[in-house]
Design a protein that fits this description.
Distance between the termini: 41 Å
Strand content: 15-25%
Mean pLDDT: 97
Number of domains: 1
Order of helices and strands: EHHEHHEHEHEHEHEHHEHEH
Strand order of the largest sheet: 1-3-2-4-9-8-5-6-7
Shape: globular
Largest sheet: 9 strands, mixed
Radius of gyration: 18 Å
CATH topology: Arginase, Chain A
CATH superfamily: Ureohydrolase domain
CATH architecture: 3-Layer(aba) Sandwich
Low-confidence stretches: none
Helix content: 25-40%
């Protein structure tokens, strides 16, 4: 049965590589001390940030993509826990809550996969809602970009208002309402009024269909800067300045050049471009969602660097918020 596995300290301890004279983040982070998630229980914890994993790629496959995104959580968590605890980042700012355990549907048809994604939505959003209602900042590692929808929904419900989102991505993920998958999380969030203004940074002209381009052009709540325009001098400042007081930050790792994902690209942002955005603007965002990255793909591709990249982005976000 699908559920949230809440971590104990022992779940974290065996992922830490100990070294005499050093302290790792994993030795400083907090864990949740109760069996069930509640707003009161979360408020009782002093950590400002709540780290969650969604190791699934059902949403990617439901969008005709290649499986692999489920592999990122465990290795990324290990990389993150083994960062040095020092004057720049202590670790006590972070509560490592756990990860969602999601069973595979017996039927692998597109219809069944999309139905399963809708079930995942129902599992995720109440947890996000409680985390945000407790005054915490969720940091979510996926998983497919389908999970943007329940994260936006949970954040919106907790704040009792639609929220703005900045999505750094090669794809707008505004496909039709044809059943849930990784390509239409923002479509559903807009339709159900959980998403207010949607800002897209780095879209690739080659990989967004004409219907999506028309939708962006005709909807005043949608604003995009294309990667091709960035190559000729455009930047993100106009998008950042228009963000509302409650905004989410979505980072699809397929926008970064040569990062392993279902839609891996040879042309995209450099890692340091994304790190700069996070470090300089993290305080504008009420959550961080990193998705679509993988350490191992079903087609045999592997990368040991994805997990360390995610650890950098998470630590940058925390540093940017507490600086």
């Amino acid at each position: 049965m699908d559920n949230l596995k809440i971590y104990s300290q022992s779940d974290i301890e065996h992922l830490i590589i100990h070294r005499d004279g050093e302290t790792k983040l994993g030795q400083r982070v907090n864990t949740y001390q109760q069996e069930a998630i509640s707003i009161e229980g979360l408020k009782a914890n002093n950590s400002k940030f709540v780290l969650l994993g969604i190791p699934e790629d059902i949403g990617v496959r439901a969008n005709a993509g290649i499986a692999g995104a489920a592999s990122a959580w465990r290795t990324s968590l290990t990389a993150f826990l083994n960062i040095q605890s020092n004057r720049f980042l202590n670790g006590e700012e972070i509560l490592v809550l756990g990860h969602f355990e999601i069973t595979e549907p017996e039927d692998s048809s597109i219809k069944a996969l999309r139905n399963k994604v809708a079930e995942i939505d129902e599992l995720l959003y109440p947890v996000i809602e409680k985390v945000v209602a407790a005054g915490k900042i969720p940091i979510v590692i996926g998983g497919g970009h389908n999970n943007a929808y329940p994260i936006i929904k949970g954040t919106s419900l907790a704040n009792k208002t639609p929220i703005d989102v900045l999505n750094i991505d090669a794809h707008a993920d505004l496909r039709e309402l044809e059943g849930r998958h990784s390509g239409n999380g923002f479509s559903y969030a807009l339709k159900e009024n959980y998403l207010d203004h949607y800002f897209m940074y780095g879209l690739h002209q080659n990989y967004n269909n004409e219907a999506i381009l028309t939708q962006i052009e005709n909807n005043p709540k949608l604003k995009a800067v294309f990667f091709e325009d960035i190559l000729t001098g455009a930047d993100y400042n106009d998008l950042i300045k228009d963000l509302g007081p409650t905004a989410g930050l979505e980072i699809d790792l397929d926008c970064i050049q040569n990062v392993l994902s279902s839609a891996e690209t040879p042309s995209g942002f450099a890692v340091n471009d994304i790190r700069k955005i996070i470090l300089t603007h993290a305080n504008k965002f009420s959550y961080l969602h990193i998705c679509e990255g993988a350490t191992r793909m079903l087609d045999g591709r592997v990368s040991k660097l994805t997990s360390k990249l995610i650890a950098y982005l998470v630590s940058d976000f925390v540093k940017g918020r507490i600086s």
